[in-house]
Amino acid sequence: MNCLRRIQFPKRCVATRFPSLNPNLKNSRTPFSSPNSTYSTLNSHSFDIPAITELIAKQHWSKLKTLVKETNPSLLLQHLFNSEAHPDLILSYFKWTQKEFGDIHNVEEFCRVLLLLANAKNYSRIRALLDDFAKNAHSNSTIFHSLSVLARRGCVNSVIVDMLVWAYVKNGEIDLALEGFDRAGDYGVRLSALSCNPMLILLVKEGRIEVVESVYKEIIRRRIGVNVVTFDVVINGLCKVGKFQKAGDIVEDMKAWGFSPSVVTYNTIIDGYCKAGKMYKADALLKEMVAKRICPNEITFNILIDGFCKDKNVTAAKKVFEEMQSQGLQPNVVTYNSLINGLCGNDKFDEAIGLQEKMLGLGLKPNVVTYNALINGFCKKKMLKEAREMLDDIGNRGLAPNVITFNTLIDAYSKDGRMDYALLLRRMMLEMGICPNVSTYNCLIGGFCREGNVKEARKLSKEMEGNGLKADLVTYNILIDALCKKGETRKAIRLLDEMIEVGLNPSHLTYNTMIEGYFREGNSTAAVNMRTLMEKRRRRANIVTYNVLIKGFCQKGKLEEANKLLNEMLEKGLVPNRTTYDVLRDEMMEKGFIPDIDGHLYNVSISS
């Protein structure tokens, strides 16, 4: 049985009318092809086919309309088919009658037009017809049956079905494309990479990797003519979800089909490892490429540099940067942006500025991404004046700041307690036609909450919703934290319930904040109940949860209870962090209580 059977396709109309295929369509006319048609059905001798084809060729539609009114337009189409008129003329008549008289042709007639065009190798017109068909999201069940009955050559069917599947993909109708792919297998119609590759690409884009795997297996089973792109797309999808072993299996399939992994293949896998934080694997693949004499390109090095920078290993990124140049490859703006961002994130701001100057010296123009990285660097060092000047510099260089530029600045000013200036920046971005997003509001809401102004923060959250933006997990966590710090856990728990109602899944941070809030109010029972609720909702207590619980019980003088929690934490395999040791020292040992633990902890002294 076809491996795609388990994919649930949406229910579609299967009526046989074209183009609407909608049995509920209200039409003032009785369809011409209906048995109840009031039009006369003249015999073939009543038609002067040469005269009619001349009218069609000259596009004398008014004269043709007068003639057609006396008969049945669908019957005339049948005679045009039988007369072996030129396919372009038949197509012109078909499209004109559809426009003039509405839904008068059935799927069989539509398929006959497609087959005529296919036999004439007029593929551009087939694509146009099928594109219109797919735009209306029509089911393809009747098309397959009609084509199988009408066509004598399987290759003609393959061309049409290949283009049909491609048309569905082009119009974003991926479920119908999958349905077409499935039916093609049932009818023995051979597809090609021209339709299968775009289908796989769209599935990867939508994150439907399990379906990608099923489709790929079926492509291989049917021995559809694949190419390097087919394998690279599937590898990309598997790498996106961390299925690196399966991606390696696809590479082996690729070789078995006679294709050699290309630089694109390696770049795809290296990028996957970098995004997963497995930099040692990515670096090993680079060495493998070189050993196999596959030359890394600019994209390879850019991926690795960006990966090392995001892994906080700027030293390794700089080595790759040097290796890139030694290979005779010129770093581009993307390369410099990654390094500048990495240097700024590692407090190597002077080096970042130096790289920007080097860019300019090489004739490379910094873009808004470059400036965003530098502004972020200034903001981290609390050099807000310089960050603000950098914003002006963006405009002076003919570039336009984006929402990330403003969000970075707004967040910095909010954290610095300068809410008036943060609001001024928001007004500036609105004047420039840049719409604030959820992150913009979160920065402002966080700023007001740090000031203890929860009322203003709530006002902003309402404004955000009024502008069509939905509060996210970060928004709720900020507000819940602010309410807990004010001792308003009842309001905080209402927000927790609200976020669940709107479909958001509370994080560890959400529950840990609530637990800490309850301890702050002296309500240890509610804190323990929140921990129970957290685990009931499939959020296992993490090291932060235990740190909060242990500290909370210590501060209530329940040291034995805190000690039990410490042992429980260790039995679950959680590794104590610096906060854990600080709590043990400050809340237990300095009070004369020595934790009763057998060899779990390192030697911790009061002076450490």
List keywords for this structure.
mainly alpha; 67% helix; single chain; two-stranded antiparallel ribbon; 608 residues
Task: Set out the fold topology.
Layout: E1 17-18, H1 49-57, H2 61-68, H3 73-82, H4 87-101, E2 105-106, H5 107-119, H6 123-135, H7 141-150, H8 154-170, H9 174-186, H10 193-205, H11 209-222, H12 228-240, H13 244-256, H14 263-275, H15 279-291, H16 298-310, H17 314-326, H18 333-345, H19 349-361, H20 368-380, H21 384-396, H22 403-415, H23 419-431, H24 438-450, H25 454-466, H26 473-485, H27 489-501, H28 508-520, H29 524-536, H30 543-555, H31 559-571, H32 578-588
Antiparallel strand pairs: 1-2
Helix pairs in contact: 3-4, 4-5, 5-7, 5-8, 6-8, 8-9, 8-10, 9-10, 10-11, 10-12, 12-13, 12-14, 14-15, 14-16, 15-16, 16-17, 16-18, 17-18, 18-19, 18-20, 19-20, 20-21, 20-22, 21-22, 22-23, 22-24, 23-24, 24-25, 24-26, 25-26, 26-27, 26-28, 27-28, 28-29, 28-30, 29-30, 30-31, 30-32
